[in-house]
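Long-time lurker. I teach an intro course on protein structure, and each term I like to show students one example going from raw sequence to a predicted 3D structure in token notation. This year I'd like something fresh instead of my usual example. Would anyone be willing to generate the tokens for the chain below so I can use it in lecture? Attribution to the forum is fine with me.
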Amino acid sequence: PDLVGRSLRCGTDATIGLLVESIAAPLFPELVAAVESASSDAGKSVLVASTRADAGRELRVVTELLRRRVSGLLVVPTASDHSWLARAAAPLVLVDRRAEGLDADMVGTDDKRAAFDAVAHLIAHGHRDIAYVGDYSRVSTSAARLAGYREAMAHYGLLVHDELVHADCPTARAASAAMSSLLAGGRQPTAVFSDATRCSLGVVPVLHEHRRTDVAFVGFGDFAMADALVPAVTVVDHSGAAVGRAAVARLARRISEPTLMPEIVHVPVRLVE
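-- Reply from a regular --
Happy to contribute to a lecture. Here you go:
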């Protein structure tokens, strides 16, 4: 069949647009594979593009996908105002993150609750000086995880010392620098909560390099070889595949029932000790 002709007759193409921050970033390869598999089962193809965390690029790519008459959009939003997406001429589901200025379906995890449970796990094991190393605090997922960290500390009557909080570490290198600073500081943490896989990949090597494997560690997101580390670490298992499948299911429902009220769908996570 002539796919262009069919899209003109139907008004849309049998294609979903998927916009992620980076194909190479942790979580997203698994998510992309799950979206492609679930979409294929539903008879749809997927166009994948990355924003590189650039709001201008995001606008250009979304505009191009809409020009191609995609039947729906799955968007991992950048950290900027997204009120302009309310006018998108295609059903839309946000993935992994909420978007400022936009009331839309969102499929992801309960980041605040998961972070609370991770820090509570450390507290239950006797830790009081717990450091936080996290991604950009303006990103909704990291903001929620930082809030969960603070809430857990407050819930158990513990002070949050500013010198132990290192937000805005978007790369492994930045997280490494933050961990080195923590180990050189006056108040030594006995445990660290890392709010993203890229941060964990910076924190863990520094702990080993400084022979500080006495410092307990919990990371948000599993990572390669985590189960081979000695001593062992604890991770919040955040499945990109589960998020991808749930996002495709929600978008399919949004396409068939366009008047549905927007909904937040939380995919379960588990603490792997």
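Some talking points for your students: The chain has a mean pLDDT of 92. Residues 102 and 123 are 36 Å apart (CA to CA).
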